[in-house]
Amino acid sequence: MNNLFFAQDHYLNITVTRKSQLMEKSIPMQIIINGYKAGVLKNGQTETFQVPGDNARLQAFLSMSKTKPFEIQANDNSEKNYLVESRMNNAAYIIGFLLVIVSTVLIFATYNLLYMVIAIPPALYHLYIRFVRKDTYLVIHEIKGSATDTVKEVF
């Protein structure tokens, strides 16, 4: 059996940061580079991956949602920084959660099910972007600067 060795003198450092958010805080996000699982990010974590070559395809998966493949083109031995976040921001999540609590309290206090209408819009919004638009729920942004915790080689 022959071991093949491909000499690569060009490496691309890809730094990926997962934005700290309330939604899916405890669920790890998988980072896929060039079709291979490169690592897992926790909420707010940053990690750097070293990829041979001058181009790469970056994608992130979080439970049932994923980003669109992000094509990266770079110069020799360059570093690129990216931020992965969900489209539902913390304010929308908190407001929706509070509306559900208020409607629940009003239902039990007055025995009137019409107060359920208060909780329907945030619930429908969450279900729509989470399940119908699941391919656009996560988004990748290129950022400036450098934040490196660890370096991993991805082949």
Task: Characterize the structure shown.
The chain has 155 residues and is of the alpha+beta class. It has two domains: 10-86 and 136-155, Domain of unknown function DUF5300 (Immunoglobulin-like); 88-133. The chain contains two helices and ten strands; from the N terminus they run ββββββββααββ. The strands form two sheets. Strands 9-8-1-4-10 form a five-stranded mixed beta sheet, with no helix packed on it. Strands 2, 3, 5, 6 and 7 form a five-stranded antiparallel beta sheet that branches. The radius of gyration is 20 Å and the shape is elongated. It starts with 10 loop residues before the first strand and ends with a strand. Mean pLDDT is 80; it is low at 1-6 and 147-155.
The CATH architecture term of the largest domain is Sandwich
CATH class of the largest domain: Mainly Beta
Number of helices: 2
The H-level CATH homologous superfamily of the largest domain, spelled out, is Domain of unknown function DUF5300
Mean pLDDT over the residues = 80
Shape: elongated
Low-confidence stretches: 1-6, 147-155
The ordered H/E elements are EEEEEEEEHHEE
Write out the strand line-up for the largest beta sheet, numbering strands in chain order. Answer: 9-8-1-4-10
Helix/strand/pairing category: alpha+beta
- Can you summarize the main beta sheet? 5 strands, mixed
What's the Cα radius of gyration? 20 Å
Beta-strand residue percentage: 35-45%
Q: Kindly identify the CATH topology of the largest domain.
A: Immunoglobulin-like
Helix content, binned percent? 10-25%
SS elements, strand count? 10
Number of domains: 2
Q: Give the terminus-to-terminus CA distance.
A: 20 Å
